[in-house]
From TrEMBL:
Pfam families attached to this UniProt entry: SBP_bac_1
Protein name: Putative ABC transporter substrate-binding protein
Gene Ontology, cellular component aspect: periplasmic space
Residues in the signal sequence: 1-25
Claim: Cell membrane is one of the keywords in the record: yes
Keyword S-adenosyl-L-methionine belongs to the record: no
Membrane-traversing stretches: none
Highest taxon above the source species: Bacteria
Length: 433
């Protein structure tokens, strides 16, 4: 009897332990680099996933110090299963050694994701460490009421934008009799490389680039006339006082309020700010226009949000189901948050079967889609782009802050610093001299 009881107890324990394992497998943890404006959107997304699959999702959401929190979690072995983050964060996360490769064949619907989105999510060696879930380009938000009051045309070129910025600064567009308005909201801060992020579109509009990719790596190309022209143009906005005061130290978190409050009249950003700007200063006074054409034509930075699988994940099957839901038409539409007034997680859908126009029913969104389809540029697939963005952000900030500095000379020095960084990442081409 004793042996039978012991055997029965062991069988019961095995069944309970197996059951506990199954129960544990039905829960995944997801960290998301989003602001509080997207918190309800993330909850709607995860609730729908749980309702469809039975897999519960524990979430953590923050838009502040996300990278530092990840690093602390890695050190403390408390990382989540999945991270939703900027696609460009891949290099930094790979260097931390926390990413697990992605196999699209195990993700239902992966064939419906646009090739451009997959290409933008690739590492420098062509490997995949993330699933793209959202894409976006940039456009100009302009105070339409100011522009029309001053009789100015919709800006199409660099020259048009500069003239409009000057008029917004000098001709009292709000009619209050005070010299308290400025042309362009510029985030020139070194924080998170904002200066580099902002100027990137102008570099491509000038026909320049950060680097040139060649068979054996990358060659830095910041010491070109095209890049100098872009930096000179943006610096002119600041030095001629057509940008808001404090532009040198401003982040996008600082520039958004200047546009909403009526201090600045041109704000370059992505479609995620449409709901906030509809609320203030108001949909009727703001227009969305395509980025201006520079000497090299129209161009815009392309960005995306990706879902990353971490090595800490214990249930890849559950993770792949979550990835599948994120890129499905249902998941994409929920994350687009249409009509919610909240900042969407999915700006432009990556699923080619999702019709942006049918869901948004707003021609402003089509400005971003057309720009993404025809004129967008992803950042170069350098192993750790974050390091280069930080380096160039500091260099560009220094140039913007010195109105009398020789831009080509400054860029030559910065180009050498980028070459050193590329060498440290083992991707500097032997052709670099």
């Amino acid at each position: 009897m004793h042996k039978k009881s012991l055997r029965a107890l062991m069988v019961s324990c095995a069944m309970l332990c197996a059951g506990a394992g199954v129960a544990q497998a039905q829960s995944i943890s997801v960290w998301s680099r989003q602001t509080d404006e997207s918190l309800s959107v993330l909850k709607a997304l995860t609730d729908a996933f749980t309702a469809e699959t039975g897999i519960k999702v524990e979430t953590f959401n923050t838009g502040v110090d996300f990278e530092q929190r990840l690093a602390r979690a890695a050190a403390g072995r408390t990382l989540p299963d999945i991270v939703l983050n900027d696609t460009t964060a891949m290099g930094q996360m790979r260097q931390m050694g926390i990413l697990e490769p992605i196999d699209p064949a195990k993700i239902t619907g992966s064939q419906d994701v646009s090739q451009s989105a997959w290409d933008g999510a690739k590492a420098s060696d062509g490997s995949l460490y993330s699933v793209p879930i959202s894409a976006q380009s940039f456009a100009m938000f302009i105070r339409k009421d100011w522009r029309e009051k001053l009789g100015m045309p919709v800006p199409k070129t660099w020259d048009d934008v500069r003239k409009l910025a000057e008029a917004f600064t000098t001709k009292d567009p709000d009619g209050n009799g005070k010299a308290d308005t400025f042309g362009m909201a510029i985030p020139g801060s070194t924080t998170r490389g904002y200066a580099s992020w902002f100027i990137s579109s102008f570099i491509w509009q000038a026909g320049g680039d950060y680097v040139k990719q060649v068979p054996d790596g990358f060659v830095p190309t910041l010491n070109t006339p095209q890049v100098a022209q872009a930096l000179t143009y943006v610096r002119g906005m600041i030095c001629d006082k057509f940008a808001q005061p404090g532009a040198i130290n401003a982040t996008t978190g600082d520039t958004l309020p200047t546009f909403r409050s009526g201090q600045t009249g041109i704000f370059i950003s992505g479609p995620y700010h449409i709901p906030q700007l509809d609320a203030e200063p108001g949909k009727d006074v703001v227009e969305v226009e395509m980025m201006p054409a520079g000497p090299g034509g129209i161009a815009s930075l392309a960005e995306g949000t990706s879902a990353f699988l971490l090595k800490s994940s214990k249930d890849h099957d559950a993770a792949n189901k979550f990835f599948s839901f994120l890129i499905s038409p249902k998941g994409q539409e929920i994350a687009m948050a249409q009509g919610s007034g909240r900042t969407p997680i999915v700006r432009l859908p990556v699923n080619s079967k999702v019709d942006v126009n049918a869901i948004r029913q707003d021609p402003r969104w089509m400005v971003f889609k057309e720009t993404f389809d025809k004129s967008s540029h992803y950042m170069p697939p350098i192993p750790n782009w974050t390091a280069v963005r930080t380096l160039t952000g500091e260099g560009f900030n220094s140039i913007l802050a010195k109105c009398d500095a020789d831009v080509p000379t400054e860029l030559e020095a910065l180009n050498k610093q980028v070459a050193k960084e590329l060498s440290g990442q083992d991707v500097l081409s032997a052709s670099y001299k």
